Amino acid sequence: MYSSLFLLFTGFITLRPQLPPPEVATPYILTGTASRYDYLLPWLPNYSMSHRTCAMRILPKYSTWKVCNIDNWKCIECFQNDYWPKEYTNRIIDLSSYAFSLIGNTRKWLMNVRIEKIEN
Question: Which helix (H) or strand (E) holds 30?
Fold first, then answer.
Protein backbone atom coordinates (compact mmCIF):
# COMPACT_ATOMS: atom_id res chain seq x y z
CA MET A 1 0.00 0.00 0.00
CA TYR A 2 2.74 2.46 0.95
CA SER A 3 4.72 1.72 -2.19
CA SER A 4 1.72 2.50 -4.37
CA LEU A 5 1.17 5.79 -2.53
CA PHE A 6 4.84 6.66 -2.96
CA LEU A 7 4.60 6.00 -6.67
CA LEU A 8 1.42 8.02 -6.92
CA PHE A 9 2.88 11.12 -5.23
CA THR A 10 6.28 11.02 -6.87
CA GLY A 11 4.94 10.58 -10.38
CA PHE A 12 6.90 7.41 -11.14
CA ILE A 13 3.88 5.45 -12.22
CA THR A 14 4.52 3.78 -15.51
CA LEU A 15 1.77 1.97 -17.27
CA ARG A 16 2.86 -1.14 -19.08
CA PRO A 17 0.50 -2.78 -21.51
CA GLN A 18 -0.47 -6.31 -20.56
CA LEU A 19 0.75 -8.62 -23.28
CA PRO A 20 -0.97 -11.95 -23.79
CA PRO A 21 1.12 -15.01 -22.93
CA PRO A 22 2.93 -16.51 -25.90
CA GLU A 23 1.17 -19.38 -27.61
CA VAL A 24 3.20 -22.49 -26.99
CA ALA A 25 2.29 -25.59 -28.91
CA THR A 26 2.15 -28.49 -26.50
CA PRO A 27 3.10 -31.67 -28.32
CA TYR A 28 1.33 -34.88 -27.55
CA ILE A 29 4.00 -37.06 -25.94
CA LEU A 30 2.89 -40.09 -23.95
CA THR A 31 4.69 -42.99 -22.31
CA GLY A 32 3.03 -46.29 -21.54
CA THR A 33 2.32 -49.82 -22.69
CA ALA A 34 1.68 -50.87 -26.27
CA SER A 35 0.14 -54.10 -27.48
CA ARG A 36 -0.19 -55.73 -30.87
CA TYR A 37 -3.22 -56.99 -32.71
CA ASP A 38 -3.36 -59.73 -35.31
CA TYR A 39 -6.97 -60.04 -36.30
CA LEU A 40 -8.48 -59.26 -39.67
CA LEU A 41 -10.62 -56.14 -39.67
CA PRO A 42 -12.21 -55.89 -43.12
CA TRP A 43 -14.54 -53.06 -42.05
CA LEU A 44 -11.68 -50.72 -41.17
CA PRO A 45 -10.34 -48.49 -43.94
CA ASN A 46 -6.58 -48.45 -44.42
CA TYR A 47 -6.06 -51.57 -42.33
CA SER A 48 -3.85 -54.48 -43.16
CA MET A 49 -1.63 -56.64 -40.99
CA SER A 50 1.24 -55.73 -43.29
CA HIS A 51 0.88 -51.95 -42.80
CA ARG A 52 2.19 -49.71 -40.05
CA THR A 53 -1.15 -48.90 -38.46
CA CYS A 54 -2.17 -48.29 -34.88
CA ALA A 55 -5.21 -47.64 -32.74
CA MET A 56 -5.54 -45.09 -29.95
CA ARG A 57 -8.41 -43.68 -27.97
CA ILE A 58 -7.20 -40.05 -27.98
CA LEU A 59 -7.31 -37.51 -30.79
CA PRO A 60 -9.21 -37.97 -34.02
CA LYS A 61 -8.58 -40.85 -36.38
CA TYR A 62 -6.15 -40.61 -39.27
CA SER A 63 -3.32 -39.04 -37.26
CA THR A 64 0.32 -40.01 -37.65
CA TRP A 65 2.32 -41.08 -34.60
CA LYS A 66 6.00 -41.72 -33.92
CA VAL A 67 6.29 -44.79 -31.69
CA CYS A 68 9.58 -45.61 -29.94
CA ASN A 69 10.33 -48.78 -28.01
CA ILE A 70 11.89 -47.64 -24.73
CA ASP A 71 13.95 -50.82 -24.32
CA ASN A 72 15.92 -50.58 -27.58
CA TRP A 73 14.95 -47.08 -28.87
CA LYS A 74 13.83 -48.31 -32.27
CA CYS A 75 11.22 -45.95 -33.71
CA ILE A 76 8.59 -46.09 -36.43
CA GLU A 77 5.86 -43.87 -37.78
CA CYS A 78 2.39 -45.37 -37.81
CA PHE A 79 -1.03 -44.29 -39.00
CA GLN A 80 -3.96 -44.23 -36.56
CA ASN A 81 -6.99 -45.89 -38.08
CA ASP A 82 -9.13 -46.92 -35.11
CA TYR A 83 -10.07 -46.14 -31.50
CA TRP A 84 -8.66 -48.82 -29.20
CA PRO A 85 -7.56 -50.09 -26.64
CA LYS A 86 -10.19 -49.78 -23.96
CA GLU A 87 -9.36 -47.77 -20.84
CA TYR A 88 -9.47 -50.72 -18.45
CA THR A 89 -6.53 -52.38 -20.25
CA ASN A 90 -4.08 -49.64 -19.14
CA ARG A 91 -2.52 -49.55 -22.61
CA ILE A 92 -2.11 -46.37 -24.61
CA ILE A 93 -1.73 -47.79 -28.12
CA ASP A 94 -2.36 -50.94 -30.17
CA LEU A 95 0.05 -51.60 -33.03
CA SER A 96 -0.51 -53.83 -36.02
CA SER A 97 1.62 -56.96 -35.95
CA TYR A 98 3.87 -55.58 -38.71
CA ALA A 99 4.48 -52.28 -36.90
CA PHE A 100 5.07 -54.17 -33.66
CA SER A 101 7.61 -56.47 -35.33
CA LEU A 102 9.65 -53.51 -36.60
CA ILE A 103 10.42 -52.20 -33.11
CA GLY A 104 9.82 -55.11 -30.74
CA ASN A 105 9.91 -58.82 -30.12
CA THR A 106 6.91 -60.55 -31.70
CA ARG A 107 7.03 -63.37 -29.16
CA LYS A 108 5.78 -60.85 -26.62
CA TRP A 109 2.45 -59.09 -26.83
CA LEU A 110 3.32 -55.97 -24.78
CA MET A 111 6.16 -53.44 -24.71
CA ASN A 112 6.91 -50.08 -23.12
CA VAL A 113 6.76 -47.24 -25.62
CA ARG A 114 7.01 -43.50 -25.96
CA ILE A 115 4.66 -41.99 -28.53
CA GLU A 116 4.65 -38.55 -30.08
CA LYS A 117 2.15 -37.02 -32.49
CA ILE A 118 3.55 -35.96 -35.84
CA GLU A 119 1.89 -32.93 -37.36
CA ASN A 120 0.11 -33.78 -40.60
Answer: strand 29-37
5: enclosing H helix or E strand: helix 2-10
Query: Which residue, among 69, 71, 115, has the nearest Cα to 92 in the 3D structure?
Result: 115
**Domains, the chain, ranges and CATH?**
29-118 (2.40.40.10)
- Quick: pLDDT tens for 35-69: 998 766 666 555 666 789 899 988 778 889 999 99
What's the whole-model pTM score?
Answer: 0.72
Which 3 state secondary structure label does DSSP give 34?
A: strand
For 51-86, give the DSSP string: S-EEE-SSS-SS-EEEEEETTT--EEEEEEEE--S-
- State how far the Cα of 71 lies from the Cα of 28, in Å rounded to an integer: 21
